[in-house]
Amino acid sequence: MILLGLLLLIIGLLVGMGLLTTIGSILIVVGVVLWILGATGRAVGGRKHFF
């Protein structure tokens, strides 16, 4: 999710589309939050590991 967000963010910045930039940054933030929760051992969505 982080890689997809980063890809959309870069494409949005290069092309100049604000929508892609916004979606990319939201995906990066959600991916980082899920990654941190999974790394601390908390269950995310009923699963101990988020892959």
From TrEMBL:
Protein keywords: Membrane, Transmembrane, Transmembrane helix
UniProt key word Membrane: yes
Residues that span the membrane, as ranges: 6-37
Keyword check for Membrane: yes
Protein name: DUF4337 domain-containing protein
